[in-house]
Structures
1.
Amino acid sequence: MTTLARLYALEQFGIKLGLANIERLCEALGHPERTFASLHVAGTNGKGSVTAMAHAALLAGGMRAARYTSPHLTRLNERFVIGDSPVADVELEAVTARVLDAADDLVRRKALPAPPTFFEATTAIAFELFRRARMEVAVIEVGLGGRFDATNVIAPLACAITSIGLDHQEQLGTTFASVAFEKAGIIKPGVPVVVGNLPVEAEGVVRRVAGERGAPLTLIREADTRVVEMSDGRATIDVRTAQHHYRSVRLALRGDHQVTNAALAVLLLDAARTHGVPVPFDAIAKGLEHVEWPARLERLDAGSGRAVLVDAAHNPEGAIALARYLQRWHPERPPLVFAAMRDKDVDGMLRALLPACGPVVTTTPATRRADDPDVLASRVRAIDPGRRVRVVRDPRAAVDAALEDAAVVCVAGSIFLAAEVRDALHGRAILP
């Protein structure tokens, strides 16, 4: 069995929240997570964008910076970005072997009751990769929740909670308050936390946890943020914080919701500045202006003057943000290519997206978690009986079918779908 096959074999253990395994694994590796400064980012939506923006700013400031995100789109390497590039295959395989061997040894000695989960292993791999590359600072995205997420073994200089929504309810609870409590688990004593726009009950929970732990709390509304201009779906913003006035920053990422994400990234980096990460103000602006974060309102050339708008929205909140973008910038209501995982709120996503879209093509990416496209089509018909909907099981063919009706097509509902569509366009030599 190859090294990466050993890693993927751990997926059979599913999701297992708790810190005991990752703590023992990090100890066996000599605590690589303690060898670099870190920033920690949690949230239902927006945490990936904030992580990418903060990382881009650190790089613009000349720092040896890394980021750890999940899931990946096409290749596992994408989770581990060192400098401005995903880790090379040879380094990834070497470190993966080291981590899995350490885990096997712990199981043999009964120091671990069972092998780590896939996410526990990849988290340990990220820490060891960053140590070997001698990173100064890493931006670490929470995988699921926060309190018992494997990333929560780090001791960050600052952290962020971007948003609270009802996703992963089996693990995190069914109310805003319960989800907020889990995500607030990343708050450490005395460590500053910046917080986005949260439901009232969720904000109350975060305030309480921050107060109990003596963590300085900064809310997004404490940043005076103004949109100067919107062009091609991208905002130019002014952000005034307690530390600096960032003027006329044109965001690289599309969508109104990226304004909030950008302000949060600024506040997170401001907090980091006061706790040992001297990123210059102009570097923070450059990070927002040049960050790359694929499959987030990403417009891809489909040839012959056609385009595919790919978005990784996979819950109702993400779908609402996408729908707002479409209603403003694509009033023609483009066709929707849609897939979703069985554990997602499909009706919630469709109710948000259907008013902004035209005909629907349901499909299924190559993962066992994917819902059947016939079932998805029935959900579309139940919500909007008059909506034209068809089933095309292969995502590549689904996009082609949608492009028969319009010059611009929207792809959404699953990050797995986004990955397959991007890969298909890349295979046709349309993407760079």
2.
Amino acid sequence: MLAGIGLQPVAEIAAADFILNTGPWGWEENAARYEAVMQAAQRRDVPMICANPDLVVSHGGRLAICAGTLAQRYEALGGRVRWQGKPFPSVYHTCFALLGIADKRRILAVGDSLRTDIAGARGVGIDSLLIAAGIHAEEFGLRDGEAPDPARLAAILARSDNAPRLVMTRFAW
């Protein structure tokens, strides 16, 4: 991730100018593993860039913490966090420009998070497709190979400001 951008990783937080938070080192991690480093960083007022606001991701059928969980904890400790990526509009506008797409009606955002993927799409005025078998699977009442419970899904989406245009159980190719 650092290739070609002129940044040098450091081994100790005492030598850091900022924290580039892309998520935990492993899939079985929890925020407590990073507590001492985050406390030391907060005492030095080291800013954090959270490169992925997702709180959790689905990996191998299980939920794992993501960069957003670590950033939330850092903020709770009093640390400064600059959030980047979904749902913030700047990441979408950058992508639109890089791809040369002026007509947003031709874009469909696909994701499994109401909080980041679907909220981000809604925030920039593009259609979205929610993958129900992702991080909200249990909440939607999914069981092995089944579609979400329609009534449960409808009730959850009715309470959300971030309802998608479409919902699919899984996304596979």
3.
Amino acid sequence: MSSSLTRILGTAITASVLAATPLTMAYAQDNQDEARLRKIEAEIRALQRTVFPGGDSKYFEPEIRPGIQVNNTNAPSTTAVTDILVRLDAIEGQLQRLTAKAEENGNTIAYLQARVAALEPQPEPQPEPLPQPAELPAATTSAPARPAVQPASTPTPTSAAVSGPSAARLAAVQEITKPQTDDPGDDEYSYGFRLWNAGFYPEARQQLSLYLEQYSSHGMTSYGRNLLGRAYLDDGQPEEAARWFLRNYQTDKDGRRAGDSLLFLAEAMIAMKDTDRACIALAEFSETYPALAAGRLLDQYEASRQKVRCN
């Protein structure tokens, strides 16, 4: 009888231990999940303080709110799973706000960097020295060779140049918008064209130089070099203009503005009172680009010919 009772008691104890084991394991697992969740919440709060300094109540809910009883014995009890789900929802909401704020800050910084880069002065690439008349494209002429053009003396900077552009000029330049298309190279050239067309020649030269430096193989480079020469010529600097016109013509004689540059080279020589070189450029233009001389550039060609007397 005692042995039977012993077996019965042993069986009951074993069943009790086995029944309690899942509860113990579940309790340990809950403790691990709770610790991991508290760690995530601490990291989220630290990240919030970095992105939103100052502890704005918009993003940090206070521990105790006015008018709210902390220990409400009548509040309905919640299970551990419900509490975890509520806290996970709160974490997801915080992450969404942080992500939106980070994207907004990134867009703002990118916009400010683009504006600063557009306003900062950029070094202009130096063209090759202007060659002797003998180095110009061959043309039928009996004009004697003349010495190379000496670089003009550097003018003394005026007080306006030292102090920089005025606030009114900066405001006027900022009103000229830069295109935003799927072709960034064309956007850079078009922005330079808009500056030149508005009469802001130094700013146009800076922008066009930046375009030629960053997009040297772009389809509008022939336009860019020609327009850079015009930005010098229209600003009363024919010698620098002549260098860019000659460079554009010699770089690619089949370029879309190579013929224009050769004709503008003649105009730059006329402005410098260098009749010999002007006549060489005009003769080469009529021989190399007869369609332009009789078509789109006819009026400009005839006007240039009337300014000089060539043999």
4.
Amino acid sequence: MTPPLAVLLSAVVLVIAGLHAYWGLGGCWPATSAERLAKAVVGRTSIRHMPSPGACFLVAAMLAGVAAWPLFAAGLVPEPWPRRLTVLAGIGVAAVFVGRGLAGYTSAWRRRFSEEPFARLDRLVYSPLCLLLGAGYTALLFADRIP
């Protein structure tokens, strides 16, 4: 089960990284304009523009690194560092995904990110996806410890 889960997690996060890189290049899919895209994927109250290309590329690069982690964790790619660093990174990544997923259901988050359609998409897609990714990363962390 570990290798298929690792490949699935890696692929999903890599697609998300690719979307961020595409947005950094000025793309606006799945919306029809940069303003509509910002309202759908950023969601801050009264947002009118996407973050800078540099910010989009930074997120894309970070996500690409996060996409590589499951491949190291499952032993599909050799680790060029001590195993404990892979485990520590996995704990951090899992915590960020779970934290982001849970945050989407708090009233403070809802007040700060209330722009539609983001608020609806966050409840239905973004937060649940983050929780699933967090669960997947956590499962990989414990996969070699469960008989």
